[in-house]
Amino acid sequence: MSKEQRAKVDAILRQPRPEGPRSVDELRAGFKALMAQMIVPDDIRVTRTTLGDRRALHVEPDNGRRAGTILYFHGGGWVFGSPETALSLTGNLAAKTGFAAYSVDYRLAPEHPFPAAIDDTLSAYRALLDGGEGPSAIAFAGDSAGGGLAVTTCLAARDAGLPLPAAIVAFSPGLDATRTGESMDTKEDVDPIFTRQAVERTGAMYLAGADPRQPLLSPAVLADLTGFPPLLLQAGTNEILLDDSTRLAARARAAGVDVILDVTADVPHVFQAFAGVLDEADEALDRAALFLSQRVRADSTARTSAE
Description:
Elements: H1 3-13, H2 24-35, E1 44-51, E2 54-61, E3 69-73, H3 87-97, E4 100-104, H4 116-130, E5 138-143, H5 145-159, E6 167-171, H6 183-186, H7 196-207, H8 219-222, E7 231-236, H9 242-254, E8 259-264, H10 279-295
Parallel strand pairs: 3-4, 3-5, 5-6, 6-7, 7-8
Antiparallel strand pairs: 1-2, 2-4
Protein backbone atom coordinates (compact mmCIF):
# COMPACT_ATOMS: atom_id res chain seq x y z
CA MET A 1 0.00 0.00 0.00
CA SER A 2 2.79 2.37 -0.93
CA LYS A 3 2.52 5.94 -2.09
CA GLU A 4 4.87 4.97 -4.91
CA GLN A 5 2.41 2.40 -6.26
CA ARG A 6 -0.48 4.84 -6.14
CA ALA A 7 1.63 7.51 -7.82
CA LYS A 8 2.56 5.09 -10.60
CA VAL A 9 -1.09 4.24 -11.26
CA ASP A 10 -2.07 7.90 -11.17
CA ALA A 11 0.66 8.73 -13.70
CA ILE A 12 -0.52 5.98 -16.06
CA LEU A 13 -4.06 7.33 -15.93
CA ARG A 14 -2.98 10.95 -16.40
CA GLN A 15 -0.98 10.37 -19.58
CA PRO A 16 -1.57 13.23 -22.05
CA ARG A 17 -4.63 12.86 -24.24
CA PRO A 18 -5.56 14.67 -27.46
CA GLU A 19 -7.18 18.07 -27.01
CA GLY A 20 -10.91 18.35 -27.62
CA PRO A 21 -13.60 15.67 -27.76
CA ARG A 22 -12.52 12.37 -29.26
CA SER A 23 -14.57 10.33 -31.69
CA VAL A 24 -16.21 7.10 -30.59
CA ASP A 25 -13.57 5.11 -32.48
CA GLU A 26 -10.80 7.07 -30.74
CA LEU A 27 -12.40 6.51 -27.33
CA ARG A 28 -12.61 2.79 -28.01
CA ALA A 29 -9.02 2.54 -29.24
CA GLY A 30 -7.68 4.54 -26.29
CA PHE A 31 -9.51 2.41 -23.73
CA LYS A 32 -8.36 -0.78 -25.41
CA ALA A 33 -4.74 0.43 -25.31
CA LEU A 34 -5.01 1.38 -21.63
CA MET A 35 -6.52 -1.92 -20.56
CA ALA A 36 -3.95 -3.89 -22.57
CA GLN A 37 -1.43 -2.75 -19.95
CA MET A 38 -3.22 -4.62 -17.16
CA ILE A 39 -1.82 -7.88 -15.84
CA VAL A 40 -3.89 -10.99 -16.62
CA PRO A 41 -3.30 -14.01 -14.35
CA ASP A 42 -1.43 -16.96 -15.85
CA ASP A 43 -3.48 -19.65 -14.10
CA ILE A 44 -6.68 -19.31 -16.15
CA ARG A 45 -8.04 -20.70 -19.42
CA VAL A 46 -9.93 -18.41 -21.77
CA THR A 47 -12.17 -19.62 -24.59
CA ARG A 48 -14.46 -17.76 -26.95
CA THR A 49 -18.11 -18.79 -26.81
CA THR A 50 -21.62 -17.38 -26.97
CA LEU A 51 -24.16 -16.80 -24.25
CA GLY A 52 -27.69 -16.00 -25.25
CA ASP A 53 -27.16 -14.50 -28.67
CA ARG A 54 -24.02 -12.56 -27.75
CA ARG A 55 -20.32 -13.31 -27.99
CA ALA A 56 -18.69 -14.03 -24.63
CA LEU A 57 -15.42 -15.09 -23.06
CA HIS A 58 -15.48 -18.17 -20.82
CA VAL A 59 -12.79 -17.78 -18.17
CA GLU A 60 -11.91 -20.83 -16.06
CA PRO A 61 -9.36 -21.36 -13.31
CA ASP A 62 -6.58 -23.81 -14.13
CA ASN A 63 -6.58 -25.38 -10.69
CA GLY A 64 -9.63 -27.10 -9.25
CA ARG A 65 -12.73 -25.40 -10.57
CA ARG A 66 -15.55 -25.13 -8.01
CA ALA A 67 -19.25 -25.32 -8.79
CA GLY A 68 -20.47 -21.79 -9.42
CA THR A 69 -20.54 -19.18 -12.17
CA ILE A 70 -19.74 -15.47 -12.29
CA LEU A 71 -21.66 -13.56 -14.96
CA TYR A 72 -19.42 -10.57 -15.66
CA PHE A 73 -20.23 -7.25 -17.34
CA HIS A 74 -17.28 -5.16 -18.55
CA GLY A 75 -16.88 -1.42 -18.08
CA GLY A 76 -16.53 1.34 -20.63
CA GLY A 77 -19.29 3.89 -20.18
CA TRP A 78 -21.73 1.77 -22.22
CA VAL A 79 -19.78 3.06 -25.27
CA PHE A 80 -16.44 1.23 -25.29
CA GLY A 81 -14.80 -1.83 -23.76
CA SER A 82 -15.19 -5.55 -24.32
CA PRO A 83 -14.75 -8.86 -22.49
CA GLU A 84 -11.08 -8.66 -23.49
CA THR A 85 -10.52 -5.26 -21.85
CA ALA A 86 -11.88 -6.62 -18.56
CA LEU A 87 -9.82 -9.81 -18.58
CA SER A 88 -7.56 -8.77 -15.71
CA LEU A 89 -10.69 -8.50 -13.55
CA THR A 90 -12.53 -11.62 -14.69
CA GLY A 91 -9.29 -13.59 -14.66
CA ASN A 92 -8.48 -12.61 -11.10
CA LEU A 93 -12.00 -13.33 -9.86
CA ALA A 94 -11.95 -16.76 -11.49
CA ALA A 95 -8.47 -17.56 -10.19
CA LYS A 96 -9.22 -16.37 -6.64
CA THR A 97 -12.68 -18.00 -6.28
CA GLY A 98 -12.29 -21.15 -8.34
CA PHE A 99 -15.53 -20.27 -10.16
CA ALA A 100 -15.79 -20.04 -13.92
CA ALA A 101 -16.84 -16.70 -15.39
CA TYR A 102 -18.70 -15.66 -18.51
CA SER A 103 -17.91 -12.13 -19.69
CA VAL A 104 -20.60 -10.86 -22.06
CA ASP A 105 -20.00 -8.72 -25.15
CA TYR A 106 -23.20 -6.69 -24.79
CA ARG A 107 -24.12 -4.13 -27.44
CA LEU A 108 -22.68 -0.64 -27.09
CA ALA A 109 -23.96 2.89 -27.61
CA PRO A 110 -24.27 5.07 -29.61
CA GLU A 111 -25.09 2.36 -32.17
CA HIS A 112 -27.22 0.51 -29.61
CA PRO A 113 -28.43 2.83 -26.82
CA PHE A 114 -30.46 2.04 -23.71
CA PRO A 115 -31.93 -0.52 -23.10
CA ALA A 116 -29.90 -2.69 -25.52
CA ALA A 117 -27.14 -3.49 -22.99
CA ILE A 118 -29.65 -4.60 -20.34
CA ASP A 119 -31.55 -6.66 -22.89
CA ASP A 120 -28.30 -8.48 -23.71
CA THR A 121 -27.17 -9.05 -20.13
CA LEU A 122 -30.62 -10.28 -19.11
CA SER A 123 -30.60 -12.63 -22.11
CA ALA A 124 -27.23 -13.98 -20.96
CA TYR A 125 -28.65 -14.65 -17.48
CA ARG A 126 -31.67 -16.42 -18.98
CA ALA A 127 -29.30 -18.58 -21.02
CA LEU A 128 -27.46 -19.70 -17.88
CA LEU A 129 -30.74 -20.54 -16.15
CA ASP A 130 -32.11 -22.32 -19.21
CA GLY A 131 -28.86 -24.28 -19.45
CA GLY A 132 -29.38 -25.73 -15.99
CA GLU A 133 -27.52 -23.34 -13.69
CA GLY A 134 -29.34 -22.71 -10.44
CA PRO A 135 -29.64 -19.07 -9.36
CA SER A 136 -27.88 -19.83 -6.06
CA ALA A 137 -24.82 -20.87 -8.10
CA ILE A 138 -24.67 -17.62 -10.12
CA ALA A 139 -23.28 -14.23 -9.14
CA PHE A 140 -23.34 -11.01 -11.14
CA ALA A 141 -20.19 -8.88 -11.22
CA GLY A 142 -19.00 -5.91 -13.21
CA ASP A 143 -16.94 -2.74 -13.26
CA SER A 144 -17.95 0.87 -13.96
CA ALA A 145 -20.82 0.76 -16.48
CA GLY A 146 -20.73 -3.01 -16.08
CA GLY A 147 -21.07 -2.60 -12.33
CA GLY A 148 -24.18 -0.59 -13.05
CA LEU A 149 -25.40 -3.39 -15.31
CA ALA A 150 -24.87 -5.93 -12.52
CA VAL A 151 -27.44 -3.96 -10.50
CA THR A 152 -29.87 -3.07 -13.30
CA THR A 153 -29.81 -6.57 -14.77
CA CYS A 154 -30.90 -7.82 -11.36
CA LEU A 155 -33.73 -5.26 -11.37
CA ALA A 156 -34.73 -6.40 -14.87
CA ALA A 157 -34.60 -10.05 -13.82
CA ARG A 158 -36.86 -9.34 -10.85
CA ASP A 159 -39.28 -7.41 -13.07
CA ALA A 160 -39.33 -10.36 -15.48
CA GLY A 161 -40.20 -12.79 -12.69
CA LEU A 162 -36.86 -14.60 -12.83
CA PRO A 163 -35.11 -15.95 -9.73
CA LEU A 164 -32.36 -13.63 -8.57
CA PRO A 165 -28.66 -14.51 -8.44
CA ALA A 166 -26.86 -15.38 -5.23
CA ALA A 167 -24.84 -12.16 -5.02
CA ILE A 168 -23.70 -9.01 -6.81
CA VAL A 169 -20.19 -7.51 -6.86
CA ALA A 170 -19.78 -4.06 -8.40
CA PHE A 171 -16.44 -2.30 -8.85
CA SER A 172 -16.87 1.51 -9.03
CA PRO A 173 -20.33 1.11 -10.54
CA GLY A 174 -22.09 3.76 -12.60
CA LEU A 175 -25.51 3.95 -10.98
CA ASP A 176 -26.88 7.44 -11.57
CA ALA A 177 -27.57 8.85 -15.02
CA THR A 178 -28.98 11.99 -13.37
CA ARG A 179 -25.41 12.82 -12.23
CA THR A 180 -26.66 14.31 -8.96
CA GLY A 181 -24.06 12.84 -6.59
CA GLU A 182 -21.99 15.41 -4.70
CA SER A 183 -18.81 13.55 -5.62
CA MET A 184 -19.41 14.45 -9.27
CA ASP A 185 -18.09 17.89 -8.32
CA THR A 186 -16.17 17.44 -5.07
CA LYS A 187 -13.93 14.67 -6.48
CA GLU A 188 -13.29 16.09 -9.93
CA ASP A 189 -9.92 17.58 -8.96
CA VAL A 190 -8.56 14.24 -7.69
CA ASP A 191 -10.11 11.89 -10.27
CA PRO A 192 -7.35 11.06 -12.79
CA ILE A 193 -9.77 9.56 -15.31
CA PHE A 194 -13.11 11.32 -15.46
CA THR A 195 -14.60 14.78 -15.57
CA ARG A 196 -18.28 15.59 -15.35
CA GLN A 197 -18.18 16.69 -18.98
CA ALA A 198 -16.68 13.39 -20.12
CA VAL A 199 -19.18 11.14 -18.36
CA GLU A 200 -22.10 13.31 -19.41
CA ARG A 201 -20.97 13.00 -23.05
CA THR A 202 -20.80 9.20 -23.06
CA GLY A 203 -23.89 9.04 -20.87
CA ALA A 204 -25.84 11.01 -23.46
CA MET A 205 -24.81 8.47 -26.10
CA TYR A 206 -26.29 5.69 -23.97
CA LEU A 207 -29.43 7.62 -23.06
CA ALA A 208 -30.18 8.73 -26.64
CA GLY A 209 -32.87 11.04 -25.30
CA ALA A 210 -34.30 8.67 -22.66
CA ASP A 211 -35.32 10.19 -19.33
CA PRO A 212 -32.52 9.40 -16.85
CA ARG A 213 -34.98 9.46 -13.98
CA GLN A 214 -35.90 5.79 -14.07
CA PRO A 215 -34.64 2.86 -12.00
CA LEU A 216 -32.85 1.08 -14.86
CA LEU A 217 -30.76 4.20 -15.49
CA SER A 218 -30.39 5.69 -12.01
CA PRO A 219 -30.82 2.92 -9.44
CA ALA A 220 -28.74 4.82 -6.86
CA VAL A 221 -31.53 7.35 -6.50
CA LEU A 222 -34.66 5.62 -7.79
CA ALA A 223 -34.52 1.82 -7.50
CA ASP A 224 -36.56 -0.25 -5.09
CA LEU A 225 -34.04 -2.88 -3.99
CA THR A 226 -36.48 -4.98 -1.99
CA GLY A 227 -35.58 -8.66 -2.19
CA PHE A 228 -32.15 -8.07 -3.69
CA PRO A 229 -29.34 -10.54 -3.09
CA PRO A 230 -26.29 -9.57 -1.02
CA LEU A 231 -24.32 -6.69 -2.53
CA LEU A 232 -20.63 -5.79 -2.40
CA LEU A 233 -19.88 -2.28 -3.67
CA GLN A 234 -16.20 -1.35 -4.00
CA ALA A 235 -15.04 2.17 -4.87
CA GLY A 236 -12.10 4.51 -4.36
CA THR A 237 -12.09 7.93 -2.75
CA ASN A 238 -10.46 9.47 -5.85
CA GLU A 239 -13.40 9.10 -8.22
CA ILE A 240 -16.33 11.26 -9.16
CA LEU A 241 -18.67 8.23 -9.16
CA LEU A 242 -18.04 7.52 -5.46
CA ASP A 243 -21.50 8.69 -4.40
CA ASP A 244 -23.14 6.30 -6.86
CA SER A 245 -21.97 3.53 -4.53
CA THR A 246 -22.61 5.30 -1.23
CA ARG A 247 -26.19 6.17 -2.18
CA LEU A 248 -27.01 2.71 -3.52
CA ALA A 249 -25.64 1.21 -0.30
CA ALA A 250 -27.96 3.46 1.71
CA ARG A 251 -30.96 2.41 -0.42
CA ALA A 252 -30.00 -1.23 0.00
CA ARG A 253 -29.77 -0.89 3.79
CA ALA A 254 -33.14 0.84 3.89
CA ALA A 255 -34.64 -2.06 1.92
CA GLY A 256 -33.21 -4.65 4.31
CA VAL A 257 -30.58 -5.90 1.86
CA ASP A 258 -27.28 -7.41 3.02
CA VAL A 259 -24.82 -4.81 1.67
CA ILE A 260 -21.13 -4.12 2.12
CA LEU A 261 -19.80 -0.70 1.10
CA ASP A 262 -16.04 -1.11 0.67
CA VAL A 263 -14.28 2.22 0.05
CA THR A 264 -10.49 2.38 -0.37
CA ALA A 265 -8.59 5.62 0.22
CA ASP A 266 -6.52 7.44 -2.41
CA VAL A 267 -7.25 5.08 -5.31
CA PRO A 268 -9.06 5.77 -8.60
CA HIS A 269 -12.00 4.40 -10.50
CA VAL A 270 -11.82 0.59 -10.98
CA PHE A 271 -8.47 0.43 -9.22
CA GLN A 272 -8.93 -3.35 -8.99
CA ALA A 273 -7.79 -3.60 -12.62
CA PHE A 274 -4.27 -2.77 -11.43
CA ALA A 275 -3.83 -6.12 -9.66
CA GLY A 276 -0.15 -7.01 -9.60
CA VAL A 277 0.81 -3.33 -9.60
CA LEU A 278 -1.18 -1.88 -6.71
CA ASP A 279 -1.44 -3.68 -3.38
CA GLU A 280 -4.89 -2.22 -2.75
CA ALA A 281 -6.11 -3.80 -5.98
CA ASP A 282 -5.02 -7.30 -4.98
CA GLU A 283 -6.47 -6.87 -1.50
CA ALA A 284 -9.81 -5.62 -2.84
CA LEU A 285 -10.03 -8.58 -5.22
CA ASP A 286 -9.29 -10.91 -2.30
CA ARG A 287 -12.20 -9.38 -0.40
CA ALA A 288 -14.48 -9.70 -3.44
CA ALA A 289 -13.46 -13.33 -3.89
CA LEU A 290 -14.19 -14.10 -0.23
CA PHE A 291 -17.59 -12.41 -0.52
CA LEU A 292 -18.45 -14.51 -3.58
CA SER A 293 -17.11 -17.74 -2.09
CA GLN A 294 -19.28 -17.29 0.98
CA ARG A 295 -22.47 -16.73 -1.00
CA VAL A 296 -22.36 -18.75 -4.21
CA ARG A 297 -23.55 -22.32 -3.70
CA ALA A 298 -24.13 -25.21 -6.08
CA ASP A 299 -27.86 -25.78 -6.44
CA SER A 300 -28.73 -29.48 -6.26
CA THR A 301 -32.20 -28.68 -7.63
CA ALA A 302 -30.88 -27.05 -10.82
CA ARG A 303 -32.11 -28.61 -14.01
CA THR A 304 -29.73 -30.44 -16.24
CA SER A 305 -29.44 -29.30 -19.84
CA ALA A 306 -31.12 -32.55 -20.91
CA GLU A 307 -34.34 -31.74 -19.06
